[in-house]
Amino acid sequence: MCFVHCVVKKKLKLIIFDCDSTLSAIEGIDELARARGPQVFAEVEAMTRDAMEGKIPVEEVFARRLDIIRPSRTNVAAVGRLYVEQVEPTVQATIKQLKAAGWTPVILSGGFRQAIEPLAAHLGIARIEAVDLHFDAKGEFVGFDEKFPTTRSGGKPVVVIALKQELKPARTVMVGDGVSDLETKPVVDLFVGFGRYTPRERVRTGAAVFINNLADLPAALTKLGT
Ligand SMILES: [Mg+2]
Q1: pLDDT tens digits, residue range 146-166?
Q2: Which end of the chain has fewer surrounding CB within 10 Å, N or C?
């Protein structure tokens, strides 16, 4: 019950970012594969590309790629550093600007939480929705969170809907380069396609707005009339 002391909490505005090839130039899974030699790298990269273009369902490649790579905690930490080194050059300033304008940034990824954490810290993004990897006491790979929605096609909209139910945002925006990101379009107020690293025709034509620099986001958000 709300009486005199009740403060009407201002609704937050949610801006959800894909990670790989959006916040950073790299695809984390491909970099993990690279550490296993050129043959594994080529095999995994082809699977990632086909999944990101929507040619094969994500669930068909997700476990297979990890079974081949079996990344250790050390491998994952190295990729974590790479995400930061290869960060999209305009994003740090853009996140600051968006936060000042009342936006709450979140990372939503089909990649791995432990690999993304350093980039999130670097950018001041408190929340990561991504797949947890499991390691044993020696830091060897033993598995992953198979239940997490982004391990399958159609997973990102499921997480977006859950975030909206939890946070009750006034506005929800998704930014990403992949077909798995475009899948969120029906459940967000604005889908922004991103083409700096891996421009995709399907995303370009499906997106209401398509940008090549994250610095162009604040202008793109004016389409929402906020
Ligand atoms: Mg991506």
Answers
A1: 999 999 989 999 999 999 999
A2: N
- Catalytic-labelled residue, pool 18, 30, 181, 189: 18
User: Active site includes 30?
Assistant: no
Per-residue pLDDT tens for 37-67? 999 999 998 998 888 788 888 888 999 999 9
Rounded Cα gap, residues 38 and 179, in angstroms: 26
- Name the maximum alpha-carbon separation found in the chain: 67
CA of 91 to the centre of ligand 1 (A): 15
DSSP code per residue over 115-150? HHHHHHHHHT--EEEEEPEEE-TTS-EEEE-TTSGG
Answer yes or no: pTM beyond 0.85: yes
Q: In this structure, are residues 197 and 212 in contact, taking their beta carbons and an 8 Å threshold?
A: no
Residue 202's identity, in one-letter code, is R
Which domains are seen in the chain, by residue range? 13-224 (3.40.50.1000)
Active site residue 18: yes
- Can you tell me the distance from the alpha carbon of 27 to that of 34, in angstroms, rounded to the nearest whole number? 11
Ligand 1 centroid vs 178 CA: distance in angstroms?
A: 5
